[in-house]
């Protein structure tokens, strides 16, 4: 059977062994309490049998549990085996020599058991993973145990004759409660603040507690010479072994493979932090009390206190070391970008402020990746992250120590150039753009965002670092507007135009609420009959100061700021209402509305559209959504799914400005379009350019083959009209038939 199979087969253990072990203890209980003859032997045999069973249980579970737990159970198995062995030696020596055999052989075996037991606790699933962490936990246990020695001295040992203490094996026997408490402390420490605690650890805690009770009682009985083998307290030992055997029946914790390092563990409660120190206080009091009768500190107590001090010092050293590492890690977390390892915005602002305090020359380059959002949308965030990491490394290499490069967030980076600059910011910008140009291999994947860089140099006009960043931002937008993969330096003129841009954005925010938007409709004509059965809604902005603005003047801003969503929503509602009134006169009237790419990416598009049609009482098939080719090509699967849903509702979908995108025709198969609108650029060249004629003809045929409706856009002259009609394009739109106008001409047919 393979290891994998073995693990899957891990089920509850065979219960027979557990029942036998429990029965042995029950028999022993009756025997000892009834004080039947041979109680000592029964007690020894009982402990041996139960420890032996616990050993096999631990071995069994060690074989079946995943690797990290295997060591834990193996060490426990060893501990149980040593307990059985120690007890066997004890029994033999007791029977041979009489009395309590606190012999070196017994001492060695039991001590080995303490070591393996402690090692097991330190390799439990919730124990610290680092060597330093484990050492500190072990020291916690040692400190508690050592602190108990002076207390034990005062409470128990003082009565024990000095001669007896001189025998090391004997003393060791009397020190067992100390070791138990050490282990219990370690157990509490390694159980960690995580809840719920892994069940075997609680059972182990119960087992250890039993042993503490047993050993303490045993030691005090022995010290008062009241102990005889077969005393009822003996029952505690097999019981504690039974518990360990039973603990094996619990399943492994869910994250025992050690992969869950990132899990945020809660802070431990104060008492757990103070745990190793509380007994030290008790020890100090005990030392004072120990001096009482003679005025001298007993040697054992003195030595213990010295060792305790050393342990405390060592522990503090380890804790300080851990804290230092933690501080380094925290600093990295606070000031570093997790993904790219570059400094983050916080650190960048700090450095920038420091640089400004030193005074000029200081320059900031603000860099924004163009087209990164599309990469994320199309290929997913994992690809986006890999790309970002790669680009960040390239940019860092390009900066090459001539500045500080930081990731401000998302796809935004910044470089700070200060001090005795060896390189001009413009030169650095060129180096960055060069570094980002795709190498040959990358072009194939189709993933190659470029960057737009804005440069601002610190001058008297800057009151603070945020002014400088704002100027870099302005320059970056200018670079974006200039086309991708460019840089611009902020100039006073640029700043001024940007301020008016900011004002325009503020105005646009109010435009929808204050009803400054306004719709015009342009007729779409049936070229065969001259009938107007449809119109396209085109938005205008009646700006309070600037007058009537065409979409080109404000839609790009609206797209950038997200204001396009409320605008489009308003347009859809108005257009549906208008179409509903047309249909009162002309039952087959329809309306076309333009939808921005950003809107198409939003899941609420469907809700908006259905709300508008039902509010207006318009049949969904009377509404056409016009989407540009590029919006459709960049669309993700979710967008495609949304388009299909819209089609299922009956809404029609037109591909606007067809022919201007650089796509292959294959996407026509995927997109559930009902209509193509041939771009104005082809129509305007009809009659002058044979290739334009061929293009319009071909698109018309293509649409016929795909069973799509066709509209020729931008028909301005009779000549263009004749050409379009001759090609056989069924419908047309353009100034020749009617300009966009407040009053729709639907129903007023062209002669
Ligand atoms: P479009 O969807 O291709 O709209 C046709 C554009 O061509 C309109 O410009 C229209 O006035 C113009 N046009 C029509 N016939 C002729 C002609 O014969 N000659 C010439 N030279 N031009 C003609 P407009 O109204 O400036 O709209 C421009 C673009 O803005 C639209 O292109 C559309 O993409 C977008 N747009 C307009 N309204 C909205 C809207 O409400 N929402 C969204 N998202 N975009 C809109
Ligand atoms: Mg359109
Ligand atoms: Mg168009």
Please characterize this protein's 3D structure:
This protein folds into three domains: 3-254 and 278-323; 345-490, Alpha-Beta Plaits (2-Layer Sandwich), CATH 3.30.70; 505-733, EAL domain (TIM Barrel, Alpha-Beta Barrel), CATH 3.20.20.450. Helices cover 59% and strands 12% of the residues. An eight-stranded mixed barrel has the order 6-7-9-10-11-12-13-14, surrounded by five helices. The protein has a five-stranded mixed β-sheet with strand order 2-3-1-4-5, sandwiched between helices. The structure holds ligand C2E and magnesium ion (2 copies). Ligand C2E is lined by residues 522, 538-539, 550-552, 555, 568, 571, 594-596, 626, 656-657, 680, 713-716, 733-735, 740.
Number of strands: 14
Ligand identities: ligand C2E, magnesium ion
Mean pLDDT: 85
General shape: elongated
Q: Helical residue percent? A: 55-70%
Oligomerization: single chain
Sheet/helix structural class: alpha/beta
Strand content: 5-15%
Largest sheet data = 8 strands, mixed, barrel
Task: Give the strand order, joined by hyphens, for the main sheet.
Answer: 6-7-9-10-11-12-13-14
Poorly predicted regions are 1-11, 257-264
Query: What is the CA-based Rg, rounded?
Result: 42 Å
SS element count, helices: 31
Q: Give the end-to-end Cα distance, rounded to a whole number of Å.
A: 89 Å
Q: How many distinct domains? A: 3
